[in-house]
Amino acid sequence: MIAVVGAGLMGAATAWQLARRGHEVTLVEAHDIGHRHGSSHGSSRIFRRAYADPLYVGLTGRAYEEWRELEGDSATPLLRTTGGLDLGEGRDPEALAGVLEGAGVPYELLGAEAALERWPFIRFDGAVLYHPGAGVVDADATVAACVRRAGELGAQVLTGVRVVGIKDGRVGLADGREVVAETVVVAAGAWLPDLGLSVVLPELRVTQQQVFHFRQRQPADEWPVLVAKDADMQVYGLPSGSDGGAGPAMKVAEHDRGTPTTAGTRTGIVDSGSRTRITTLVEDRFPGLDPDPVAEATCLYTTTPDEDFVLDRQGSLVIVSPCSGHGAKFTPLIGAMAADLATGKGVPHPRFRLGR
């Protein structure tokens, strides 16, 4: 039997991948499925192919196929293609174009005037990379689909029970029960540093992030996802989905200015400084949006020093932490890779090892 600790995106996907392969699985979640305390809630996450690192470009291609597989198996639409933009000197659109060219990923490199003609609701001041394969993933629907299908395929799902210890395949629960497994997959997100595991983890920095939703001035405008970076800040934007309320909206947030916290001490209170910076940016750069937020929320990042993932096995433990604020797009692929490690069919990528 294989136990999976944590039913966020990665744990849920791992349980689904294992169950569909015919393995006996127990999925343990401290909260309810789809809770709002971690990193996996909300109706919108970016899927994009544009990375400066060829490793991740390749993984996005594999992830896309796994998304379509999950959609087919669950009969649930999860990934909506919108196209994606990269802009700002810090993103270096020309360099990104070279990486996509080498990987055979379709793209266009546009000047500011050409980009403005296509997306008049955004202000551009330099080169822009557009790649049509980008889109939006519904995180809430993904977690629900994976857990539902895992259960239908025979997995046992335990919710509302906290893990208090993991040792030698034994998962101790706060209610006194114990789950005994041959292998334990730990996909606990920001709670990972608090579990007292018998492995040496990389330094994991947990931060509270703030996200804001802005109503589109013209509901018919078709907004792409986007990543923009200059000398002062890096932001991302994407269609909000249901998180934006009634009517089309865009979710806009800072990527690199979270507030240090822990999973147990986060306040959930939106940082006013982040709100001011983002609303100012929206007013300046996104004339197609009303700069008064219609909704706002917080979530958690768990970031490694090199921003690479953790996906490794030591003994009976598999550690799954595709994190650093860019893991959601890989969800079903990470589930497959974790399932491979848990069943002895995979080898950890050197860059994702615990002791790298």
From TrEMBL:
<dbReference type="InterPro" id="IPR045170">
    <property type="entry name" value="MTOX"/>
</dbReference>
<dbReference type="InterPro" id="IPR006076">
    <property type="entry name" value="FAD-dep_OxRdtase"/>
</dbReference>
<protein>
    <submittedName>
        <fullName>FAD-dependent oxidoreductase</fullName>
    </submittedName>
</protein>
<keyword id="KW-0285">Flavoprotein</keyword>
<dbReference type="Pfam" id="PF01266">
    <property type="entry name" value="DAO"/>
</dbReference>
<dbReference type="InterPro" id="IPR036188">
    <property type="entry name" value="FAD/NAD-bd_sf"/>
</dbReference>
<keyword id="KW-0274">FAD</keyword>
<keyword id="KW-0560">Oxidoreductase</keyword>
<feature type="domain" description="FAD dependent oxidoreductase">
    <location>
        <begin position="2"/>
        <end position="341"/>
    </location>
</feature>
<dbReference type="GO" id="GO:0008115">
    <property type="term" value="F:sarcosine oxidase activity"/>
</dbReference>
<dbReference type="GO" id="GO:0050660">
    <property type="term" value="F:flavin adenine dinucleotide binding"/>
</dbReference>
<feature type="region of interest" description="Disordered">
    <location>
        <begin position="244"/>
        <end position="266"/>
    </location>
</feature>
